[in-house]
Amino acid sequence: MTSLWPRLEPLLPRVEKPARYIGCEDGACTDIYKPDATSWLLTYPDTYEIGLPNQGLQILYELLNERPDAFAERSYAPWTDMEAQMRSNGLPLFSVDTHRPAEEFDILAFNLSAELVYTNVLNCIDLAGLAVRASQRGDADPLIGAGGHCAYNPEPLTDFIDFFVMGDGEEVIAEITTTVGEWRKSGKPPGSRENVLRALTQIAGVYVPSMYEATYDGTKLVGVQPKHPDVPVSVQKRTVADLADWPYPRNQLVPLTEVVHDRLNVEIFRGCTRGCRFCQAGMITRPVRERPASQVREMVSKGLERTGYDEVSLTSLSTADFSNIEEVVTGTIDEPGTCGRVSVSLPSLRVDAFTVGVAAQVSRARRTGLTFAPEAGSWRMRQIINKLVTEEDLYEAVRSAYSQGWHRMKLYFLTGLPSEMDEDTLAIADLAENCVAIGQEYTKKASVTVSLGGFVPKPHTPFQWFGQNESAELRRKVELLRERLRRNKRVHLKWHAPEASTAEGITSRGDRRVGRVIEHVWRHGGTFQEWSEHFDLTLWEEAMRASELDIEWYVHRHRDENEVLPWDHIHAGLHKDFLWQDWQDALAGFGLEDCRWTPCYDCGACTEYGIEHVVASPVPPNGGSQGTGQDLAIGHVVPVDLRPRAEVGGT
Amino acid sequence: MRLRIRFSKMGKVRFVGHRDVARIVERALRRCGVPITYSEGFSPRVRMSFGLALPTCYESEAEYLDVPLSPDSIVDGQIACIGWGQGKLHNEQQMQIALSEALPTGFDVVALTVEPKGGGSLQETVVTCGWKFDILGAVAREVEDAIERALAGSEIETERKKKNELVRENIRYGVYDLRMDGESERGPIVIAELSAKPRVIRPSELVDVLAPGAEMGIARRTHQWIEHEGQWQEPLTPSKSPQLKEYS
Ligand code: SF4
């Protein structure tokens, strides 16, 4: 085993934030080298600060290192200054644990949590000294794998990635380790790469794109079919049935330099069935699997004691929905070891589940930032997206917070949603102003930050057929709201660059042909595209032109029911006709209740795989149906049409 | 009462910045159950004060930290732990071991005392720092000559960047000791004692004087000297030698 440390060390004084590259975290495994084991380099294609806290990566890291037949190290995308040093000094991508070169690992596995990191994936493969195109890599080169939410539309990356993993990784990594281990033992002779890839197709949840062929009729995709009879026609996601079996990470990594989410993070449940129609995470991670409250408490206590953190975040897609949330928060704060000095942060709060009780418990310790996500300004719009929280729900949550001593909070909204009209966008301002008014009953300092994101339709959601707003239209809506809120000093508006939404749109619903675009952008220096200082839409536009692909066709066009979608052969359990029906219901303004507390709709996520919800409480928090106390089935009085984009546009 | 702690920072962790070190130490104090105190206000902070900040990329055998203890925390001359250490009574030596263990590899507590509060803050009282550093690829003889010339004259003119401007300064006043001490595989090793007042003179400023155009290898702070009743002394003498990773 080679350590690159002696060559790396002299470069570090020349870069900003050298601590990104040293490893040394508490919880890191550095004496894990097992010469005969299958080696994984788990790579996060963004900076150390963003990648280190990633829970998925840390879970796999621990699980692999517990195995006698595997070991794992970690790597992160070097920042541009470090990349320049590495390239000019001939230093390849390395692990931060023992500073081994990436090329010495059997598998380079990427975590794909956002589409805009795709060019960084290529950059990392290239820095590793490997050919970026899978077809040009040699027999003994590491296999390049990828998983994470974006893997559910793997097609744009099929030119570069050898295998994808769909769904929860806890179980499938063992099977991959065994299969790759045999290849390793064979000495990786000529021709063996093809064989190991073929063998990987036999593992449920694994997709090997080179074993499939995409056919087109003109620009239209006809289908993605297996090339061999033993290769499955469709790839089914993996789901762990019970989170209680997986109390990981047990030894969360404690970084030596500040990272995002720099605190203890404990996952309290996985999956969400609130059914928000824009939310890919909610669709692909079904069903809901709660961790037993006692296990949460134990992970929190042990974690705080081991790390010395004074903050814990209870993570999930909608934390206030956890059956025992108040009990867990209270127990954590009363834990003697913390001396009453621990703060509990609850990311992803549903307003209809955030009660004054929870607010009171949380505020007993240091108050953390509060973010609510009403997502849309008007009730009409929230019915369309199935975010069934009423204005009153929001005001009540906001009142709970202000009454418990908070001065400010963040409200998250999307714009560019299906059938959205200007009055829907402007309703965001009304909501925000009303929230401030409530706050002012409690404190003069009351303020609200509105964070506005441009909506990008995602695969495996009911909105996968929707034509995304053009960036000019998104910008117009941002301006509209900005103008409306200009004189209000208590409402701060923040927004994401609408141009980035276009690039995200190209990659999120792209097909295999988009691989050329990603490669073009990367070859023209387009890395770190999710960083506004590096993002450049013209690069993407040029790349689309050079690849003879049409942005309008890929991003802004509405799809119809019969269109073959590039990810049709990838299954998250959800039946396509369920999603289509939900899309029709959306347009009709029909809401759909949460199946965790009401009968099943047979979306497929449980029924296809013989699993079910693991939820302790039979009723929603705060009582009532979805907490709204409303009859949701009536829908809106006037059904809305999905208006053709030409009418919507201001461009 | 307060804890006065001397710790080392060696190896890979030399790349961790000063503010990050504060966070690392804070977590270690909590893990050990040190009876720390907090500032008042909306977001209370753990009370602790460091000695002179160490530049990122430098190693050290002599970092200092004062941690005020809560008034009722000394029982029978021992430290009564709180939080995760609740129920434990530690003497100085036990606390030193516990803290060392709670800190990441590369950090090591080399001395620890419980003492009354008072005296000037570490930052104010440190007068000079001892340093040891090597110069990449420099020729030992030439460095030796340069040292001789520098010490013989009344001027050691250096250049450094200050807010993007080049500042020239004669730092002869602040050079108390300067000599060669053998060679590492990277280059000649230099030992220096440099003043910390009115500003901290860094070894890197000397590199251009001793070997024009050369780059500094690894620098390590070896001492921080304070003036006490007319005498120079170290705030704490190490009770054990740090896990020194010699230049290799
Ligand atoms: S299969 Fe039924 S219970 Fe399971 S997530 Fe889908 S609708 Fe809900």
Description:
The complex is a heterodimer of chains A (651) and B (248). Helix content of chain A is 32%, strand content 14%. Chain A contains 21 helices and 19 strands. In chain A, the strands form 6 sheets. A 6-stranded mixed β-sheet of chain A has the order 2-1-3-4-5-6, with helices on both faces. In chain A, α5 links the parallel β3 and β4 (143-147). In chain A, α11 packs parallel to α13 (391-403) and α17 (514-523) crosses α18. Chain B is α+β, with helices and mostly antiparallel strands. Chain B has 2 domains: 2-118, Alpha-Beta Plaits (2-Layer Sandwich); 124-233, Alpha-Beta Plaits (2-Layer Sandwich), CATH 3.30.70. Chain B has helices at residues 18-32, 92-102, 122-125, 140-152, 204-210, and strands spanning 2-9, 49-50, 59-68, 74-75, 78-80, 89-90, 107-115, 126-135, 157-162, 165-170, 175-183, 188-195, 216-228, 231-233. In chain B, the strands form 3 sheets. In chain B, strands 1, 2, 3, 7, 8, 11, 12, 13 and 14 form a 9-stranded mixed β-sheet that branches. Chain B has a 3-stranded antiparallel β-sheet with strand order 4-5-6. In chain B, β13 (216-228) and β14 (231-233) form a beta hairpin. In chain B, α1 (18-32) crosses α2. The longest helix of chain B is centred in the N-terminal third of the chain and has 15 residues, at 18-32. The interface between A and B is medium-sized, with 30 and 29 residues. The structure holds iron/sulfur cluster. The site of iron/sulfur cluster (SF4) has 13 residues of chain A, from loops.
